[in-house]
Structure formats: C-alpha cells, structure tokens
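User: Please predict the structure of the protein below. I'd like the answer in structure-token form so I can feed it into my own downstream comparison script.

Assistant: Understood. Taking the following sequence of 150 residues as input:
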Amino acid sequence: MAKPYAYNRRARYDYEIKETLEAGISLKGYEVKAVKTGHCSLRGSFVVLKNERPYLLNSSIPPYQPKNTPKNYDPNRSRQLLLNKKEIRRLIGKTKEKGLTLIPIKMYNKKGRIKVEIGVGRGKRKIDKREKIKKRDIKREVDRDLRSKE
C-alpha cells in the first residue's frame, strides 16, 4: 500500500482501537489537489454523527493554491464521510456503547479515491500508556543487548 497522505499518530497512543472501518470523504476539487500533495492533517480531528450522517471535524486541509481558492474557504470545515446505511447503523450502535468514540486514523488513496480509515476505540488511561512505554523500553534494551553480543 502507498504511503498515506495523513496519519493521526496520537490515535493509537491515546485510544485502544477495537475495530477499523474505511470511509470515503466528500471533498471539493481544490481540496483533493491539496490532499494529494500531502497538505492535510488529522491531528486533533474526530468523527461525529449528525442526523445519522458521519462527519469529520477539525481535520485541516489548507488551500492548494491560496490565490485560486474562494475567499470564504475554511480549511477546518466539517466534511461528510461516505458510508452505506448498514455501516452507519453499526457505527451508531457502537457510539452508544459507553466510552467508545470514532477517531480518524489515516487518509490514503485507493484506486484514485481518497479514503479515511476510522477507528472505533476507547480512550486509554494514563496507566495503560505508561505500561506500553515501559514494555517498549524493555524490548529496545533486549534488542540492543542481543545485537551487542553478536
């Protein structure tokens, strides 16, 4: 798979992702060009359901060519995610469960279309994050010791 246009690094750190889902995204032409050149960010963005439709909020897509972009363009506007009704109903059921939220993980290209990977996850507590960091440090030290003994 090709390199994603945008990746939300904090998503897997701050949330325990239970399952992922692929969704299309409704963009304007100049936004598509900006995304394809890598001018987009998912930092701090999240997905909400309004009127049984999923929207991506707080994702930043700055204009590709600022001089050719409409004057009233908002780079952080809410963008509709494209899913079928069955997937939307499943998401509604998941978000009603206590503590589950929808987080965009990455934005990528699939057969010429821009897709967003959405994760259904539960927020991690501070203790969980510390344990993960501790395990990673121990693994790093073990790997370092094995390499030095070779």
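That's the full token string. Residues 126-149 form the longest helix (24 residues).
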